[in-house]
């Protein structure tokens, strides 16, 4: 929403003279005991008249014309109240609540001298945005795909003109950013997990909603009072007994701690219970600074277990502080040696943890989560074996094991049609899989015209992982998705391969659907005979909005010649009026009669085998990432441009005599009856269409460009 962005910049740069970080540090929970009336600067976001208490426009105010232009910043004796009203502005000391007057159904601010200003005309008071904690109404200005609370787009589209009710407004995790580094803000639609980008809405209510989404963000903190040029202002790390884990060393001054929980331990030195933040399992080495900020050979340290920082030593920079898992009284009671009962509870927890390590949820959890869990189990066993373990140490590791186990509970992604994934489905699936394999030894990608999700595992002892290759494993999509198919009854003669139920009951549909899973590096879908191309006069939906009953086909006048590819991205078989079609989704979506299509297994041909063997000899048995091959071509050879759909275009360039053409992720393909050497996207970390040359023009291939 344009109003919000302008106000964000005005309040930060023109009015307040305060950086956006300062605004975040306002303690929102405090309420200022403000005076009844105080002169305050008011910023007008609209041209505004002045009214009397009856809602009648007045023409003179304080001896001048009763009119203020947009952008004006006069001062008025603004009435505030100690009571919580629904309208407020923030100061460094907390919220200040505005005393408002309701006139003819609208809220007004009393500006003294018998004058009242409509709240919808006021953008800010005392250099701070005027906000409300009430729900607001917003009109959607364009068809918009909403996000969930993780910033992920789904299939739900809110139509232009829809009026939504929002109970919150602000940045969300995974949301976009606008040009000047300010996060994009969103409206939360009441009663849903849907968030609407505020650029796509017009605020209808008088005042913007001020309820932000801090609770959605993972809490983070930094050391207090970090002074530039000195590492002495970092903070110490502590263990499960509340003792300094690395005496003489501290974190760096601007270290960011991700907070995984809050726990009270007994501080033996100060003889009191102290609140600590849990900031790591201790599974990884950490960098520390000595006094004076020097980083020596001993700057890397191996933790002896879970890591903590004192809550009193850090400032929260993101999110909301977690509720403590125990109380100060419990920490005092647990400062002594663990009781038999506590030890037995720990033994049970370890037994359960070993079962978890053998479970499916553990195996599908993110690599970092598994590493943290393994470290927690190891520490739990050490604490269990020790005769001097405190009750606090025992109770914490039990909590830690439960806490990490809960993070393994990953919800499957709901998709409308598992056999017809939308681009948004694929993005969510890829994100989930990459979170599961979130270490440096793996990569996950879509492959084979986006039909396969593959796991690439780099060689363990490779000095340069991008040169040494690795192994490829096809992942099971059902591990990540579950069907949430709309209840749509197909008309007679209409169906599609989008659902397994349809495939199971229609043998001809099943036959064609099986052809969709061809290996594009070894085969292709081609026209049996010259066949017409069709398009739909109605919009082809995706995800939950797809409905085969709404497809209306017409013949375009174009055709595909016998033997030519029908298109690489054939995604679905549809049945329209009893006739089966391949639906191809490339730059445009079009349809080809299924009865006119066959599978060409070109990898069995002599030509393919000859030239692919030359490629395989250079790449080796593995799949090197970003492997480059150089092909020497004949005089007069042409280099063909390819597009993002792996098609060979008519645009060509001459290759000079004795020149080499390079390809990343090289392979041989057959396109429109001709064999080419080209480059792929699967094992190319920065894919751009690689182009192609005819294999008949190739003299030789090499992995090193001759000088």
From TrEMBL:
Residues 1-23 form the signal peptide. The keyword Signal applies. Keywords: Signal. It comes from the Bacteria. This is Serine protease.
């Amino acid at each position: 929403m344009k109003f919000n962005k302008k106000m964000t910049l005005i309040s930060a740069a023109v009015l307040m003279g305060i950086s956006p970080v300062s605004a975040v540090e306002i303690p929102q929970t405090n309420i200022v005991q403000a005076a009844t009336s105080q002169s305050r600067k008011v910023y007008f976001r609209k041209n505004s008249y002045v009214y009397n208490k009856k809602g009648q426009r007045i023409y003179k105010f304080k001896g001048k014309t009763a009119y203020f232009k947009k952008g004006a910043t006069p001062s008025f004796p603004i009435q505030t109240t100690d009571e919580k009203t629904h309208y407020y502005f923030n100061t460094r000391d907390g919220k200040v609540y505005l005393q408002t007057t309701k006139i003819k159904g609208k809220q007004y601010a009393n500006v003294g001298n018998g004058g009242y200003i409509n709240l919808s005309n006021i953008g800010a008071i005392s250099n701070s945005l005027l906000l409300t904690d009430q729900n607001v109404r917003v009109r959607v200005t364009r068809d918009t795909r909403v996000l969930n609370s993780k910033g992920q787009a789904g299939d739900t589209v809110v139509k232009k003109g829809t009026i939504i009710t929002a109970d919150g407004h602000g940045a969300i995790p995974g949301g976009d950013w606008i040009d000047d580094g300010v996060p994009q803000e969103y409206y939360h639609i009441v009663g849903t997990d849907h968030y609407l980008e505020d650029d796509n809405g017009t605020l209808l209510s008088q005042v913007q909603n001020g309820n932000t989404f801090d609770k959605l963000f993972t809490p983070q903190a930094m050391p207090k009072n970090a002074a530039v040029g000195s590492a002495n202002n970092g903070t110490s790390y502590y263990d499960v007994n509340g003792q300094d884990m690395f005496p003489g060393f501290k974190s760096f001054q601007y270290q960011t701690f991700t907070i995984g929980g809050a726990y009270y331990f007994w501080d033996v030195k100060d003889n009191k219970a102290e609140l600590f933040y849990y900031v790591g399992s201790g599974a990884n080495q950490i960098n520390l600074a000595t006094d004076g900020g020097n980083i020596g050979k001993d700057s890397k340290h191996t933790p002896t277990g879970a890591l903590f920082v004192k809550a009193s030593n850090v400032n929260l920079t993101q999110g909301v502080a977690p509720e403590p898992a125990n109380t100060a009284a419990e920490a005092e009671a647990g400062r002594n040696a663990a009781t038999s009962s506590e030890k037995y509870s720990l033994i049970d927890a370890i037994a359960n943890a070993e079962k978890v390590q053998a479970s499916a949820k553990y195996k599908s959890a993110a690599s970092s989560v598994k590493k943290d869990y393994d470290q927690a189990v190891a520490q739990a066993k050490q604490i269990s074996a020790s005769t001097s373990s405190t009750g606090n140490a025992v109770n914490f590791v039990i909590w830690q094991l439960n806490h990490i186990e809960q993070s393994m509970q990953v919800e499957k992604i709901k998709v409308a049609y598992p056999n017809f994934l939308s681009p948004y489905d694929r993005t969510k699936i890829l994100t989930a899989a990459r979170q599961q394999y979130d270490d440096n030894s793996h990569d996950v990608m879509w492959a084979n015209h986006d039909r396969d999700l593959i796991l690439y595992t780099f060689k363990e002892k490779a000095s340069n992982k991008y040169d040494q290759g690795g192994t490829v494993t096809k992942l099971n999509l059902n591990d990540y998705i579950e069907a949430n198919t709309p209840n749509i009854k197909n008309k007679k003669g209409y169906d599609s391969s989008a659902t397994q139920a349809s495939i199971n009951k229609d043998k001809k549909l099943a036959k064609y659907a099986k052809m969709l899973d061809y290996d594009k590096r070894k085969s292709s879908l081609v026209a049996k005979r010259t066949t017409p191309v069709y398009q739909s006069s109605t919009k082809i939906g995706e995800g939950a909005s797809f409905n085969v009953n709404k497809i209306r086909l017409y013949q375009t006048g174009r055709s595909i010649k016998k033997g030519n590819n029908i298109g690489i991205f054939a995604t679905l078989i549809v049945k329209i009026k009893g006739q089966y079609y391949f639906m191809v989704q490339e730059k445009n979506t079009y349809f080809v009669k299924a009865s006119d299509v066959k599978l060409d297994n070109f990898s069995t041909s002599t030509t393919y085998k000859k030239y692919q063997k030359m490629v395989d000899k250079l790449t080796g048995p593995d799949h090197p990432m970003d492997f480059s091959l150089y092909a020497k071509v004949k005089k007069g050879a042409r280099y063909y441009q390819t597009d993002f759909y792996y098609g060979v275009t008519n645009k060509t360039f001459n290759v000079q005599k004795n020149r080499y053409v390079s390809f990343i992720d090289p392979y041989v393909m057959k396109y429109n009856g001709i064999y080419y050497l080209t480059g792929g996207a699967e094992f190319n970390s920065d894919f751009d269409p690689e182009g192609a040359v005819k294999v008949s023009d190739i003299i030789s291939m090499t992995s090193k460009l001759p000088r």
